[in-house]
């Protein structure tokens, strides 16, 4: 929502400075996004007279001008404008000034061998119009030496407010002024529209025809004005519209645009001679089309509301008018429309057709029902003043009325909800200035919301209104009571795991990415999804049609884009939601990552001092295990088994599980078919861990950490090599050795796997290192040998392995 400071002051009597107004607007919830103060920007620009203009000695299209800026010291300027001539009055810019149209700071220059110490500018270079055919040519009586911004009325600041959707009343300058007046920064200037008496009945009637369907137009007001003279609007109106970025069209259209921004009341004007018969407000028929005022043709359907005459659709209700009935310089009879529309339908229609108009912006938020007819009276008054004409009586179809909202408000709610102590007199003053009606003198009053505030529903809304006007800074800071008991954790288990997973992956050199929650249907089907329940009803793009069953497709696409732009060694991760169904229990938090080319944890790329290699399944395995360790998964219970889902290479993938029923995640090299379907090139490895499937840690009696125990005795390492069948997993050997004596055996690791000469076909040798940590005493050789014999016996029992000779 844009407006100028002078426009605001037509509704607000105030002596406050621009900075004070900006600060107050933000304080009351009307956040100021930007302030364009052209008075500062154009301060160096002055009115100057060209006293001499000679042909440039080295260029046919350039002139060397001597410019008088009012101080009696002529300045030499080289100018290429075709209208530059001696005796003309223009706008001079000295070196060091910023030229907004060229986005540059002017400096002293030499043009074709002649020095130029400034510039004569066009309106385009000042960004006040698109005219760049010549420099600004001012009247001869323009005061030389005067600041051009002040002379041209360009010294007005333009404020841009970022409105929240619940404040339709502030889509007009009048509503913003009302809010500011409630803060006592000024007083509201009331300008109620005058009632214009109609001199004859309106010859065009209006019918609301929605049959048995839900009506999309509660009320519609119409008036004819005959004998108008349309043409350019007056200079003050054009300047006001230009200042906020609107292009003046003609007086009739400019009036409706002005009232839209001034009062938040969109209107529409029809050329009465182009309207055939009476108007009907109805649903569009499937297949109907409208050539709109923006020059585009829109295909309509029966979910959209239109205004039609005997010729067909004339206007897209509440959004944009039609080209066929638009007003131009030949218009002599005009129909002025002021109506109410259903906000949700306006929003749906605008979104479906891709139209963002000022009318849609206001109607989809909800306009003041009680200002429908007064808005029409205001438009009639301006049309008569600027264009002349004779008005008809107003014809109204339907009923424009705001639902009565009365809130039973205990004054103690302000203290309870906001901690503020205000007396009833102060509360009443604030609410009354905002347009509320307050009845009662006790601790409980009745508060009636004004018709322009559809967002007011209950007591909390009344408290919010008071708080934002008096200032959030007046709310006292009150610490929470800590109590005697220890404070409970603030974060849930899921939140803690998410944060720990991100830190673990970042520490391993992966970069966090955020990808779309939707992927294409073929990709979803490839990764186990693609169910009809997970297809989007209204996808933003054809390739983003289904909710993702895995984070891998999005990360692979991101890695490939990096590779296409010259960064092949990419390691990315994401912790986000995946979806296996449309129920809450089918939604999981996954920690997923991909590594491409040479993006290993120890460093990416090729190095002369180390052996470079592409990423492999074991890199992805290490990443997955790092997540599980950080998230608190029980390391002793986890198993890593060969194989994984179909999108992984069958011989280069693994599954991490706690028993066959609880799959924690997968890792491995992506299958060539999966890479082809994802339009990516390998080598690419990936992993995916489901954080919800990690078992909860058992609750401890205390949050204190256990005592750190160091053994005073030297650990002992013994190596064992077992010959087992090729199908036996090394993890089973490790687990069998660990289970012999968990108190003494502190670690078991695999350090060698061998197949070949000396080993029987179909067999393999797996060598493990067992670390024995004495606790109470130094172990004798006999005790160590006895423990070793138990290890050999247990491994043989569990896996059928024998000691390698």
Describe this structure in words.
The protein is an alpha+beta fold and 805 residues long. Helices cover 25% and strands 26% of the residues. The protein has a seven-stranded mixed beta sheet. A hairpin with a 3-residue loop joins strand 22 (312-316) and strand 23.
Could you give a short description of this structure?
The model has no long low-confidence stretch (mean pLDDT 92).
Distance between the termini: 86 Å
Kindly state the percentage of residues in helix: 25-40%
CA gyration radius, whole angstroms: 39 Å
Number of strands: 44
Please report which band the strand proportion falls in: under 5%, 5-15%, 15-25%, 25-35%, 35-45% or over 45%: 25-35%
Q: Which overall shape is indicated by the principal axes computed on the Cα atoms?
A: elongated
Give the strand line-up of the largest sheet: 30-33-34-40-39-38-37
Structural class label: alpha+beta
Mean pLDDT: 92
Query: How would a textbook summarize the main sheet?
Result: 7 strands, mixed
Low-confidence stretches: none
Essential attributes:
seven-stranded mixed β-sheet, 21 helices
List the helices and strands and how they pair.
Layout: E1 2-4, H1 5-9, E2 12-13, H2 18-27, E3 31-37, H3 38-41, E4 46-55, E5 63-68, E6 75-79, E7 89-93, E8 98-99, E9 104-105, E10 109-111, E11 114-116, E12 119-120, H4 123-126, H5 148-152, E13 157-162, H6 173-182, E14 187-188, E15 206-209, E16 219-226, H7 235-243, H8 251-263, E17 268-271, E18 279-283, E19 289-291, E20 297-299, E21 305-309, E22 312-316, E23 320-321, E24 334-340, H9 343-353, H10 358-363, H11 372-387, E25 390-391, E26 395-398, E27 406-410, H12 412-418, H13 424-433, E28 437-439, E29 444-448, H14 459-470, H15 493-507, E30 511-512, E31 518-519, H16 521-526, E32 546-547, H17 552-564, E33 571-579, E34 587-596, E35 599-600, E36 603-604, H18 617-630, E37 639-642, E38 648-657, E39 663-670, H19 672-677, E40 684-690, E41 716-725, H20 730-738, E42 745-754, E43 763-772, H21 781-799, E44 802-803
Parallel strand pairs: 15-18, 30-33
Antiparallel strand pairs: 1-13, 2-14, 3-13, 4-5, 4-7, 5-6, 7-12, 8-9, 10-11, 16-24, 16-25, 16-26, 17-24, 18-21, 19-20, 21-22, 22-23, 27-29, 28-29, 31-32, 33-34, 34-40, 35-36, 37-38, 38-39, 39-40, 41-43, 41-44, 42-43
Helix pairs in contact: 6-13, 7-8, 8-11, 12-14, 15-18, 20-21
């Amino acid at each position: 929502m844009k407006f100028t400071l002078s426009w605001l002051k037509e509704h607000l009597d105030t002596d406050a400075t621009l900075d004070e107004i900006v600060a107050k607007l933000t304080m009351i919830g009307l956040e100021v996004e930007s302030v364009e103060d052209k008075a500062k920007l154009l301060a160096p620009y002055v009115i100057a007279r060209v006293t001499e203009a000679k042909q440039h000695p080295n260029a046919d299209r350039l002139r060397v001008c001597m410019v008088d800026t009012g101080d009696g010291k002529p300045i030499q300027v080289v100018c290429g404008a075709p209208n530059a001539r001696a005796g003309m009055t223009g706008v001079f810019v000295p070196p060091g000034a910023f030229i907004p149209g060229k986005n540059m700071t002017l400096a002293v220059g030499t043009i074709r061998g002649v020095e130029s110490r400034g510039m004569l500018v066009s309106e385009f270079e000042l960004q006040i119009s698109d005219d760049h055919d010549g420099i600004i040519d001012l009247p001869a009586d323009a005061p030389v030496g005067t600041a051009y911004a002040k002379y041209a009325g360009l010294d007005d600041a333009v404020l841009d407010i970022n409105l929240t959707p619940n404040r339709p009343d502030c889509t007009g300058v009048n509503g913003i002024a009302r809010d500011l007046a409630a803060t006592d920064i000024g007083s509201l200037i009331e300008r109620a529209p005058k009632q214009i008496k109609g001199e004859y009945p309106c010859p065009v009637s209006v019918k609301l025809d929605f049959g048995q369907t839900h009506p999309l137009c509660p009320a519609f007001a119409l008036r004819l004005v005959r004998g108008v003279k349309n043409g350019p609007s007056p200079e003050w109106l054009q300047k006001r519209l230009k200042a906020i970025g609107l292009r003046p069209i003609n007086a009739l259209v400019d009036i409706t645009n002005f009232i839209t921004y001034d009062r938040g009341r969109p209107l529409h004007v029809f050329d009465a001679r182009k309207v055939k018969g009476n108007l009907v407000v109805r649903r569009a028929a499937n297949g109907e089309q409208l050539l709109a005022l923006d020059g585009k043709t829109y295909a309509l359907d029966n979910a959209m509301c239109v205004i039609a005459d005997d010729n067909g659709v004339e206007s897209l209700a509440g959004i944009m008018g039609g080209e066929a009935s638009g007003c131009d310089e030949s218009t002599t009879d005009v129909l002025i429309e002021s109506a109410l529309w259903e906000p949700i339908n306006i929003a749906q229609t605008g979104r479906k057709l891709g139209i963002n108009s000022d009318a849609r912006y206001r109607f989809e938020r909800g306009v003041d029902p009680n200002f429908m007819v007064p808005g029409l009276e205001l438009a009639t008054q301006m049309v008569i003043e600027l264009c002349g004409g004779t008005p008809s009586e107003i014809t109204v179809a339907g009923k424009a009325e705001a639902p009565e909202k009365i809130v039973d408000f205990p004054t103690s709610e302000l203290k309870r909800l906001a901690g503020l102590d205000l007396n009833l007199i102060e509360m009443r003053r604030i609410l009354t200035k905002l347009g509320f009606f307050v009845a009662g003198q006790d601790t409980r009053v009745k508060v009636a919301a004004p018709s322009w505030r559809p967002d007011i529903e209950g007591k909390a809304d009344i408290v919010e209104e008071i708080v934002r006007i008096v200032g959030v800074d007046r709310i006292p800071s009150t610490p929470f009571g800590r109590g005697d008991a220890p404070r409970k954790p603030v974060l849930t288990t899921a939140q803690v795991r998410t944060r720990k997973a991100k830190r673990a992956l970042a520490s391993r050199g992966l970069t966090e990415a955020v990808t779309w929650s939707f992927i294409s249907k073929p990709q979803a089907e490839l990764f186990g999804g693609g169910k009809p329940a997970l297809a989007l009803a209204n996808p933003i793009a054809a390739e983003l049609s289904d909710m993702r069953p895995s984070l891998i497709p999005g990360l692979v696409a991101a890695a490939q884009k990096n590779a296409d732009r010259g960064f092949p060694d990419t390691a990315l991760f994401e912790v986000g939601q995946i979806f296996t169904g449309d129920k809450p229990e089918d939604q999981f938090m996954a920690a997923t990552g991909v590594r491409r080319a040479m993006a290993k944890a120890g460093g990416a790329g090729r190095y002369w001092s180390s052996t470079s290699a592409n990423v492999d399944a074991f890199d992805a395995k290490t990443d997955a295990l790092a997540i599980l360790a950080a998230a608190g998964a029980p390391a002793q219970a986890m198993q890593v088994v060969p194989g994984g889902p179909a999108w992984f290479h069958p011989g280069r993938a693994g599954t991490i599980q706690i028993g066959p029923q609880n799959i924690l995640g997968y890792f491995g090299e992506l299958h060539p078919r999966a890479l082809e379907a994802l339009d990516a090139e390998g080598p690419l490895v990936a992993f995916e861990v489901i954080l919800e499937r990690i078992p909860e840690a058992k609750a401890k009696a205390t949050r204190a950490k256990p005592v750190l125990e160091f053994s005073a005795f030297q650990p002992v390492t013994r190596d064992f090599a077992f010959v087992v069948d090729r199908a036996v997993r090394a993890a089973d050997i490790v687990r069998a050795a660990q289970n012999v004596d968990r108190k003494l055996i502190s670690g078991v690791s695999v350090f060698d796997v061998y197949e070949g000469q000396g080993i029987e076909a179909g067999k393999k040798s797996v060598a493990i290192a067992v670390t024995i940590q004495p606790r109470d005493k130094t172990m004798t050789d006999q005790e160590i040998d006895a423990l070793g014999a138990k290890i050999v016996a247990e491994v043989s029992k569990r896996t059928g392995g024998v000691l390698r000779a």
